[in-house]
Every structure is written in C-alpha cells, then in structure tokens.
Amino acid sequence: MIKTTSQLISLHAKLEEEAAGKLRVLALHHTGAAEALNRLADENVQHRDTVTRVYREGVTDAFEVGYLSQPLNEGDYTVKELKGPLKEAIRTAILNEDAVIRFCLDASRDANQLIPSLPQTFQRLAKRKEKRKALLESLV
Amino acid sequence: MTSMVVLDEPIKGVVEVKNYIDGEWVESSSDEHRMAVNPATMKTLAKVPMGSAEDVKAAVDAARDAFPMWRRTTPLTRSRYFFRLKELLEQHFETVSRVCTMEHGKTIDESRGEVRRGIENAEVAAGIPSLMMGYNLEDISTGIDEILIKQPLGVFACIAPFNFPFMVPLWFMPTAVATGNTYVVKPSPWTPLSMVKLMELVDEAGFPPGVINMVHGDVEPVQAILEHPDVKGVSFVGSTKIGRDVIYKEAASRGKRVQAQCGAKNFLVVMPDADVDSTVPGLLSSFFGNAGQRCLAGANLVMVGDDKKFIDGVLNKIQKATQGIRVGYGLEEGVQMGPLQAVPRKNRVLGFIEEGVEEGAKLKLDGRKFDCEGYPRDCFLGPSIFHDVQPDMAIAKEEIFGPVMSVLHAQDLGEAIEMVNGSSYGNAASVFTGSGKTARRFQYEVECGNIGVNIGTAAPMAFFPFSGMKDSFFGDLHGQGRDAVDFFTEGKVVIQRWP
Question: Same domain for B209 and B117?
C-alpha cells in the first residue's frame, strides 16, 4: 500500500518512466510515428520532473506530510508493454495513459492535505494526458 | 514493490569527521572520539572528535579576523552568497535528506521536510537588504534628523541539538551571516554529518574563509564557546536543564546575547465540535512524527466535554490509525515512523512508559513490544498510548521526547486551558475546534509561544520567529523572522544636524 508522500512521488516517477521507456521502444519500431512518440516520452519525463519539483518545494515538516489519509494500492496502476502492430500498441498506450490519469486523480485526492500545490499539479497533468490520448489516436 | 523500496545510502563506510575552520578542513586537536551510529541499522557512520577549547579558539579567531572584511561586504553581495547556497542545496537536496535520515533515523519524508525548512531560512536570509533596513525621521527638532541603523556585532555561535541536525543551525546561521556577522556552528556529536554536508556546500558556494566555521564535539567546546570573549552571542536548542542552567546563565553572565530554545510538554486540546476526519491525521503527525523527538511534538491529548460517544469515537480512530503506523528504517519509503535516535533515548522513553504504568495510567497501546523485522531492536520502539492520565502524573508533566501519547480529560475549555497553563513549559499548544470563539479564547489565554488552531504541529515558518515561553525559552529574541534580525544586529541611533 502507498501510505507516504514519498511512496506516492516514487510511484508517479516509476509510472512516467515506464510509460516513456515503452513509447521510445515503440518509436524504434515505427519510424513514421517516431517523432511524435519520442515527444510524448519526453513529456513523460517532464511530468515526472514537475511532480518531483513541486513535492520538494512544498514538503515541510511543519504540517502533516507523511501520512496519506486513504492509502492507495500500487497494483491498481500499471503500465503495460506496447506489443503487436502499431494500431494494437497504440491502443495499449492509450490504456497506459488512462492508468496514469487514474493515478494522478487518485493522488490528487489523497495528497490534498499534504502539500497544497501537489493536487493541482496532478490534476493539470491528468488534463494534459487526456489530450495526449487524442494525439496517440491520430497516429493510427 | 514501491512500498518496500529502500533508497540508496549516500554514506558508505565510516566518515572521519573534521572541523571546518577558516575555509579549511582540519583535524581536531582532541584525541577523544565518539562513533555516530545509524540508529536503524546500528552501523557506524562516523568517527566524531569530541573537540577542545583549542578547536573553538581557532574557529572563533578565524571568525573574528574575517569579520571586518565581511561586515564591509555589502548586504546585497552577502545575500548573493545565500542565493548560491540555496541553489547548491537544491542540487544536493536528496543526498542531504538521506544523510539526515541515516544519522537521525527519521523517515525520508521527514528529512526532506527538514531540509526544505532549512533551505527556507537561506531564502529568507537572501532578502537581507530589505530585512536589515533601519528607519529614520526628519526634523526631530528643526533641522535635526534621527536615523536608526542596524549593524552586525561580530562572532556568533550555534550549539545544535540531535533532533533536527540540518534545520536547526539554519534557523540562525543564515540570518547571522547575512546581517554581516561571522559564525561558528557546533553540531550535536550524535548527528554531525548533516552539518558536514552543509559545510561542503558552504565551501562550494565560496563564502570567504572564516565567515562560517564548524567545530565538532561535546562539553568542552560548548564551555569554550560560552567563555570566549570574542563570541558576542549564542543560539542554543536543547533541553531546559542545559539551556537554562548552563547556556543562559553562563553566556548572559559574560554579557553575551543568548537565545536558548529548550524543552516542551505540548498539549493538544480536542473540543467536541472538532472535525474528526481532519483532526486525527493532525494528531498522529504531531505525536508520532519524528518519533516524538521534537520540541513541537504533541505530548498530552486533552479530550474536552462529556460526550462519551464523540470521545470514544476519536480515541478509537486514533488507536486504529496508530496501530497502522509502519515503523522501520526511514530510507524505506513506506515507513511512517523511524527509530529513536540512540539507545539512551529509547531507554529514557521506556522509563517513562514504566512510570506511567506504575502511576496507574492505562496503557492502551504498548510500543515496547514492537519488533522491527530485519533490523536490530536497539533503537526501535512502537508508538504508545496511555488513557486516563492525570495532570500530576510524570508522563503528563515531564518531557518524554518519544512516541508516547497521554490522553487526559477536561470538563470544559477553561479546565483544559488551566491544564495547559499549569505546565512549567510554554512551547506549543493546539486546539481542534469548529468555533472561532473557542479558538480566540485559547489563543488569548494559553501561555505558550506557538499556538495551533486545527494544526497539530504549530511550527513557525522561516519568516516568523520560533517562539516559546516559560521553561521553553530563555532570552529575549527568538530564532527566525524579524526577531533573528534584531538578535544578530545592534540598533545604532544617529542624530545629525548640518548647519
């Protein structure tokens, strides 16, 4: 279970890194879509860095930072391999986006009492990831 | 699984700790050493010299010699050193946080929070050109003007505690140095490495030699700081006994400025109209954060009123949530409470728990039985909760400095305030309520320096003073905020006429 802010941030970083890695591998196999896929992967890294920065700038021992009121289950958020032809792989990539969006929204809810700027950041990322889904769909 | 991730340890092997004097890393002249130990793993982290009067003399001499040049350095230039230091601290944020966890035992979230609050003090100091301004008035008499200017005094020193090894020296040093003074830090010999990391960054930031110095050690260097005629003032954080009977008395008797921030016994008062869902996390963090080893930690929980259903509901939620707190090595990301910092500290807490049982309080959760899987038991202790505690019991009066919650009852707010004010300490107190009237009365009548309203840990930020009253503070001006600027400067009045 995810019970601390540190775990929350680490899981987010892991999801973004995994999503980025899988998009880059897909880009290697589909040169026509490579530019867009690599750009999306770069964005994943940016999203990871944004959350880490907001956490580090907001974390304080002054208030309740270490305890999530409603622990999250790590197993609820997984990034899958992008296999098969491009169309199938893109469908999986969109499901991956959904998993990360779900995480961002859940994290946004549970981080509310921890660091005030974290929920807004997660919500903003969730919105951006919705737009990424449209871009992914346009690749097939 | 992320929940089991143990972060990389930045300290490998045993660090031979050195002093940092006049811009150089130098060996202590003392032959005595103590080993600093990771309280979770019990592995030795550092060989720490116990320090000597000779070490202090060298550091203070360097600081005194650097003072004339540093004082003439403009406030704007001095502030730029702190911008550079802040930038370096951001770059090394994670390393410093992990070092802090390794030597203290607190969780990584707590260490990062501590490092952030330290950095905030450097940020505030970077604003010194505004903070240090004096004031003036034209024509106090016809053609005569009066101005007040704030000037640095010389060498200041900090005697730091073990419980916030990174943050506490930064409550003082940045403001002292930014206002033009020079500085000597003496870290706790139990937790010296966070300050070693800071001094590495101070060195990298390029502070001129002698402006910031560090001497390690225990009793002898403290005594030497108190006795050295060139030390103009001392900032101390630690126990009331040492703060009042040694630091305050000895430094003040020699004409030094003193700010001694000392012990605490903090009351958290829960009114029947409190919002339970937001109150419980605040209570848990206050009582068990940093394993209870902080002067702002909750110690006594006062449940007010006779609504048994409400009181039982809150206490049951606390009990359940506390039982769910994961105790372990702070570098494991899922851990919510680390060990006590050292074996003697754990033994002290155990002594209080035994005393509480003997005095007739009901031990509803016994942290003594806790066994941390995979780690030696030496410093680990689970959270404990006592019910039916009476105000005259030792566990309600003495500072335990560990993860122990004592639950008391008061009939009404007046009785709760009497309990708070009956304590010899006056560091912090909080009230949880939905009523502004209750909150105002609490804030008005309670004799404590830091008041929380629906806040479990009333920790002042860098731009406010860290207040404290009664046996929790000795001196006049507190650390941080405008108090700190006044502590580290002398107000000089100039009255001038130009005929």
Answer: yes
Nearest to B107 among A2, A4, A60 (CB): A4
Contacts of B284 in chain A (CB under 8 A): 64, 67
Q: Which residue of A has its CA nearest to B277?
A: A69
Of B116, B336, B457, the CB nearest to A67: B336
ipTM greater than cut 0.90: no
Q: Is the pLDDT reported for residue B1 higher than 50?
A: no
Catalytic residue among B158, B262, B295, B372: B295
Identify the pLDDT of residue B77: 97
Q: Is B295 a catalytic residue?
A: yes
Q: Are B405 and B287 in contact (CB under 8 A)?
A: yes
Q: What is the pTM of this model?
A: 0.93
Distances (CA, A) of A15 to A54, A137, B230: 17, 21, 56
pLDDT in tens, B109-168: 999 999 999 999 999 999 999 999 999 999 999 999 999 999 999 999 999 999 999 999
Residue B245 confidence (pLDDT) above 90? yes
Domain carrying residue A93: 5-137
Is there a contact between B75 and B140 (Cβ–Cβ < 8 Å)? Answer: no
Burial of residue B461 (CB within 10 Å: 0-12, 13-18, 19+) is middle
Cite the DSSP H helix spans in B207-340. 219-227, 240-242, 249-253, 276-288, 308-323
Q: B152: domain range?
A: 2-262+472-496
Tell me whether residues B109 and A2 touch, CB distance under 8 A.
no
Beta-strand pair B19-21/B24-26: antiparallel
Are B238 and B291 contained in the same domain? Answer: no
Mean per-residue pLDDT, A100-119? 82
DSSP B13: S
CATH number where B308 lies: 3.40.309.10
